[in-house]
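Continuing the series of single-chain predictions for the mutant panel. This is the parent chain; the variants come on the following pages.
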Amino acid sequence: MEDFDWTSFTRRIAVKAKLSDIYKAWTRSSDIEKWFLSKSIFLDKNGRPISENEQIEKGFAYEWRWYLYEDVESGRITEANGIDFIQFTFAGECLVDIKLTSQDEYVIVELTQKEIPTDDDSKRGIRLGCHTGWSFFLVNLKSVYEGGLDLRNKDTKLKGMLNN
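Parent structure:
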């Protein structure tokens, strides 16, 4: 495990969709709730909530909730170019880069989470935990946009499943 990178990881998936649709899937509350969150609130540069169909911009903030969890994740949008790149803080001050690339009829979604602290709690909770979480949610993004099936477990009687 000496050579294992605890500070970052990258996950990639090909989604058969339009690049503009996948960009919106990350940058509008109405779209990100289809595959990732139970509730998304984006806040403008003055701290006011924006419309669920309004697209985020650099300098906005967010408050995110998931099904079956009480935790609220808060962070900042550090980059949003309106086309194919988004960056936001996540799990504290980690950075998540979302890079979208068109390839034939696919959009390659490349997610990199970086600047992960190297204390034991961060190694376990962020490096390993987020890697697992992002892997599932990227598969769910593909499922929702290619076939319409949301794979998330929303049943409160079934906690601790692979899909929540």
